[in-house]
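Incident review: delayed structure delivery

Summary: a single-chain prediction request sat in the queue longer than the usual turnaround. Root cause was a stuck worker, restarted by the on-call engineer. No data loss occurred. The affected request and its eventual output are reproduced below so the record is complete for anyone auditing the incident later.

Affected input:
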Amino acid sequence: MTTFSAPDGTLLAYRVTGDGDPVVCIPGGPADSAYLGDLGGLSAHHRLIVPDLRGTGGSALPEDPSSYRCDRLVEDVEALRAHLGLPRMDLLAHSAGTNIAVQYAARHPERVGRLTLVGPSVRAVGLEITGETRRACALLRKGEPWFPAAFAALVELTEGRGGDAEAIAPFFWGRWDAAARERHAAAQPDNQEAVAGFGAEGAFDPEVTRAALAAFDRSVLVLTGEFDLNSPPPMADEYAGLFPDADLVVQPGAGHYPWIDDADRFAAAVRAFLAPSSHRTRQ
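Output delivered after worker restart:
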């Protein structure tokens, strides 16, 4: 991996795979970015630049734990852009990483080319996902052998009665098999201080962010899985509506990791969006 210095001097790591026009890919978690892999083969068509967020993967632990806060991570992305010498960059983000990406777009709109949000989190924009919406999404899986126990846990969680969060893991994958279980374990954050600090007080200002996104004049793709309990399609549709120019793609049969559930379909959708001829030229 290659490294660069964050504004506070923390040494941050990133990896580069593939060839073609660059796309900076922000992982969720905060977790080791290795779980993104090559994004379903997208690296065969684009040069993927994938940072490890501070305190994860190959990136150093910061001296100041408060720098794990999401809004402060925005400037790590800006430092990476400057390090790469890119006047403007296409951004792709997944899950919690979308909170960083949209705050970056709000703060540095002139530095963004196209913005791809995969399985977006709503914290930075203040949308609400009701328990009813999550349960309706989960009911699409009622024919699965694991469904009864997982759905019972989901009902408890969404009704505020506690429940085992790990028991609902099958809902995040298009296929809950041995491979998915291994990938699920590998994708879990191992720096709990970073996780806790990510959403600390002051990390999000949804009203300000939404106002900025309403004026964001770049092309946006919001992509979620048909079965994604974290980012149900009705919410993803509402999320896309926050932008003047956003496309919504709901990937059939996919959960929260659509590049794993159907790599070819995922890569094709993102490639089509990133293609130079797919949108009007923006200055």
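Verification: The first strand starts at residue 2 and ends at 5.
Action items: add queue-age alerting; document worker restart procedure.
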